[in-house]
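Appendix B, example 12.
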Amino acid sequence: MDQAPFARLTRNARWQTLALMGLLPVALLLLGALLWGGMRVLEQERSRLELDFNALIAYLQEQEDFLHQLQHQSEMVRRVPVAQAAELRKLPAPSGWDVQLYEGQESAVDLPFTFACAPSAACQGSNATVLSLGSYLANFYATYWASSYFPAAAVFFVSRTEDLSLGVPAIGAFAGYEPISVDVYRSTTRVVRDALQSGDVPVRAHDAARDALHAHVDPNVQWFAIPGAPEKMVGVLAAGFQEGLWSRQGTSPADVFLASLLSRERLNAFKHRGHSGDGYAFWLAHRDQGVLMGEGGPPVQHSLGLSLRMDGLVWKGQDARGDWTGSALVSYRSFFYKNWWLLAGGAMVMLWLVIGGIWYTRWYRRHVLAPAEEAQRQIMESDAFNRTLVETAPVGLCVLQRDTGAVVFINTIAQRWLDLAQSSAAGAGMGQQLKHICSMGAPGVSHGAWQVADKHLSLAYAPSVYREQRVMVCAFMDMTDRVQIEQELARAKQAADEASEAKSMFLSTMSHEIRTPLYGLQGTVELLTSTEMDARQRLYVGRIQEASQLLLQLISDILDMGKIEAGQLSLELTTFSPRELVQNCLRSYAGMAQRKGLLLFSCVDLDIPALVEGDAVRIRQILSNLVSNAIKFTDVGRVAVQVHAHQVEAGRVQMRFEVYDTGIGIEKEQQGHLFQPFFMVEGRAHTGQGAGLGLSICERLAKLMDASIHVRSEYQIGSCFTLELPLKVQAARASQQPNLKGCQVVVRTPHDALSRNLAAWLRFWGAEVEVAEDGKDALMAHQEAAAWIDLFMHRSSQPAQWTGLYLCLDPMQEPSSHPEIDGQSVLSIAQGLERLLLNVALVQQELLTQRQLGMKVLVAEDNPINQMTLRDQLEQLGCQVTLADDGEDALAMWDMEAHDVVLTDVNMPRMNGYELARTLRAEGVRSPIVGITANAMQDEKQRCRDAGMDVCVVKLITLDALAKLLQQFQGIHADGVTADVGQEPAGAKVQVPAKYRQLFLETMLQDVGTLSDALKQGQADKVVYAVHRMSGALVDVGHVVLAQRLQKLEESLKAHGLTDSAQSDVADVLEALHQLLSEV
């Protein structure tokens, strides 16, 4: 049954628990944070109210101090200095106030003051006194409040007996944060005069004695409320004037009082710096005088501090002396307006709780109750369905009690198959096997082990618990049809294996039977090319070589396709030079290109690695197929190979080989089928030989090497096949690189890209290179020490004015000026220049060993043609050859005489090559054994190695390949003595290939004549030049002794000139050269 409802129910219950455990602390945390924040805000509100009260009390005390200092100053001053101000300036009096207003100012930088007097008083005649008192009061006012922290408060001189007053600052003057208006001036002076006249302020007696004055003056400042101004009150103190300071008729100095206006609004404006009001109602009460500030009565609050009431927050506080009591009422509206976040937070918490409750109710209904109901319904449906399924399924099901083996449950099919009934114990036969299954402790499967009558059953079992019993659940399936199918498949596989083995045997046999005569054909033709032939014969031989090469390529393609299908194609990684691989590949197809009149060349970038690791054989096979196809499908123009490389990662490089041609091209419709087996491009211009396997094999080989191959082609323009593959970079071996420093070279080729690439390589090796343009002769500074290279140019194009060394390098045209130099290899060209221009002796060991290996070789070959071919090849390499028709003859000949190397065919009558190798190794023979086979399958090489052979080579074997093979074993003879291969055999004659013999004789005779003429005329430079040329030619044909003699002579001539001794040496050399040429 589907466990999804139960899983959801369990998961939802778990999430519910986690949610409650997680959200409840969060809710409590939020509520606690809200409460803490509220308490914090109330505390801040209490601190604010207390701070405002303390500031007001400090401001009040500051004004009292101001009044006391002014009083004290007035008591000390007997005469006020005469003011320097002008006459008083009269101001217009407001309607309803029967006074005259004057404004005075001592100077433009001093504070102005206001003088008010009733019309009945004698305002005139007192200007000097008023001006002096006004300036006195303004100066004291400015001096005091300039050093005070609090804002300046307005101060007044008020007469008790007259309607006369003097105030600083003047009406309308802005002082501090609140200007003095006419109404404020009028109401303040009226409150003071009313208080004085009512006797609320004690008045001192008129006594000239100073002590008496101090005794009668009340030292305390009396404060009074100002009706209509609940935020203001005025403090009153006797002015303390001496008799000489106030000399008006009808008024004594004792009737003059000081008054200071305390404005809470001014203090609030000073504290809040421009912010709007404090947002609460405030009352200030004196212990004796009652409420002096505030509108209406203060709220009743018996204790000090902050408390919560229905109408708001109530605060009450006292000053330190207990004289003043402040009360404040902050309405809830004002409080929450300032602390809106508190109300919003509470609302959000409540809203969150409400929404959360609704959401939780719905979630619980949907995810807990509903799934539980659905699960119950599914259980009931599942139980009914399972019973029906068990009875109708084509599977035998039974449940066995593990302890007793009794059948707890069994369906109809199991009863029919096993002959068991429910509630019965398993009996003999099948029942015993089931009892054994009940003892198993882990699930398992038994395929085809249960056979009942004509049926094959498969059993799957697993322990379980059913109705509180330990049971084993068993499921049987009818495997009869499957067993029959498997038997048929096994027979089919056996037949396929036999067919595959027959196919492999056929391919192996065909490879051997075809390659054997083909080897004899190609080997004989190769030997024929070393004989003297005319041009027509050489043409015929070339056609034979080309046809046999095509036949060999076709056979190789068919065999490779067989290897791929058989899964026997594998890579053999070796270290090789990409440049040499490409240029050697092109050398193989130079003849084919020349016969069609095509230019075939390569351009290799200088930045490619010197050595890489990869399957060089398979890479060359791909390039050979691409080059061969390009030549076959190109009638005019060129075929070029370009090699590029770029770094992919450390130690690896991405190589790109591009094969271009100027052939007819390939239509876009046919390009998608190029790499399919047996596909051949159709069309009159696309006629060529082959089976259509080459490109298909190339693609499969590329995939095997993690490479890619693709084509770009334009019809009637040409094609470009690109091979891209990753290779591992190998460290370059220490080898002698050409050193062309000091050489001057002129390069000319039929193609600009080839000219630039050849020039770049020669410059890389140190030469000074100039590329000759078509139709223009290049002029070097010293032509005698320079060389002109015509690569793939006809010799008739030799520049007429050139006097230096001239090299015409076209191996397919007769005659070539230097046939020993390979025009397809830039390394060979560089080494030739090094030898010809710098006289560097290139007496290479491989040249000597190719001509005189001096080895004894035992050849076991049953094919007479191949016997003769191998013998001729080995004898041309200077080997002594012993022939045997099979393995038994080879053993007999070995017993008569030991040999340096054994070459044996692997398939021979009586005793084959494998048996011969095993027998020789069993007798303790340690000489190299080389197996020769025409079977190119992968397992053939392994069989050769297992038999004890050192190397296994596949026919066809060229002369160069045979020479390189034997060089691996040169120097180790059968007797264990190492041969000295560096000496030229005594009496050895010069071995000049037949096709180069005529050219060798002509050039040598010409150089001998030049040397003889130069010697007679005493021209040392020409003698040196001729000796240099002939030493290089002798190296090429392997006459080392005479070549070294000429080189020593050249060094002596350069060092000492043409002395008598040198002339004698030259004459001796001429005699030796004449003898040599006569032998050739």
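Residues 205-217, 684-688, 841-850, 974-988 have pLDDT under 50 and may be disordered. The CA atoms of residues 456 and 481 lie 9 Å apart.
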